[in-house]
Amino acid sequence: MPRRKYSNEFKREAVALTQEPGVTQTQVARELGLPFGLLEPSE
Questions:
Q1: Dihedral of the CA atoms 9, 10, 13, 18 (nearest 10)?
Q2: Is 28 helix (H, G, I), strand (E, B) or coil?
Q3: Region 23-36 average pLDDT
Q4: 11 and 17 in contact (C-beta within 8 Å)?
Q5: What angle do CA 31, 37, 41 make, to 5 degrees?
Q6: H helices of 1-43, where?
């Protein structure tokens, strides 16, 4: 299965959603149909 590519705008909006009070990264990932952990910070 090929790896999905996301636009920079989509990435910015997804990260912005995680900054909303009371919203978790897991919730945002589910709502956007993203794999679990994709929005986790990278080291």
A1: -140
A2: helix
A3: 90
A4: no
A5: 110
A6: 8-18, 25-32
Q: How many CB atoms lie within 10 A of CB 21?
A: 4
Residue carrying the six token digits 């990264």 = 25
What distance lies between CA 25 and its chain's CA centroid? Answer: 7
Per-residue confidence (pLDDT) for residue 6, from 0 to 100: 87
Phi-psi region of 18 (alpha: psi -120 to 50; beta: other; left: phi over 0): alpha
Q: Tell me if 35 sits within 8 A of 14, measured CB to CB.
A: no
The pLDDT-based confidence of 36 (bands split at 50, 70, 90) is confident
| Confidence grade of residue 22 (pLDDT, cut at 50, 70, 90) | very high
